[in-house]
Amino acid sequence: xxxxxxxxxxxxxxxxxxxxxxxxxxxxxxxSKIREELAVEVPNGYMPMYNAGPTQLxxxxxxxxxxxxxxxxxxxxAKWSNNKSISAKSINLPAESAFQKTSYRNQIQxxxxxxxxxxxxxxxxxxxxxxxPYYYYPTKVPLMGIAGLWEEFEDIDGSVSHSFILLTxxxxxxxxxxxxxxxxxxxxxxxxxxxxxxxxxxxxxxxxSLTQQHTPLSSHPVSPAISNLANNQSTLITAVPPxxxxxxxxLFT
Length: 253
Fold this sequence. Notes:
The structure is a single chain. The protein has helices spanning 6-17, 31-38, 84-87, 95-100, 102-110, 188-196, 204-211, and strands at 24-27, 49-52, 57-62, 70-74, 92-94, 112-117, 119-125, 131-138, 144-154, 160-170, 181-183, 185-186, 217-221. By secondary structure, it is of the alpha+beta class. It has one domain (6-119, 142-217): hypothetical protein yedk fold (Alpha-Beta Complex), CATH 3.90.1680.10. β7 (119-125) and β8 (131-138) form a beta hairpin.
């Protein structure tokens, strides 16, 4: 595996473009379903996560180990790892930037990953002071993968850790009102292509093309309890009347 700190170098470039509104997702599929859909072995340590968030240890599939599920921290860790307010923000990177700059392209060449998800959360602004959480999930497939990049680094104690960030692409019409970028979703049938070939020419166009096919998504409002990472119950994905970040009911949808 690689050593060093690629994400350290990119920190000040990632932050201005990070889509912080996409800082929660859910991965709760049965191990047998992940094995079936993504052709990977799922270790016994896998547990459903209904409120996956930055800095947590979460399942990924890397280009280095395409047949197994690994567990990496979501977001920039490395030398800023002790500052959670920084590391929690460094979670996304626009794919356009990743393919245009040499330092990113080198990372794409060797450190790609897929992050399995059943769905994701986004805060929809319904008024100047109110935002309502929504859960988005694929309508026609059981789960999706988000294209990402991963890194290995060694801390001052010699302990080795791993982290990942998600790639984003221009939003579909359904999500454009929330953010101008959305996670780079791939249906399971297309995930292997992102992981296998090291030819960048076979990566950029297919990634942008496949994500812009816009996998049909359904959505509904959910509880603002997702804002607390300590919450991880299955009811977090349950549809509820629209409630803002303060727990106040709203007529907006």
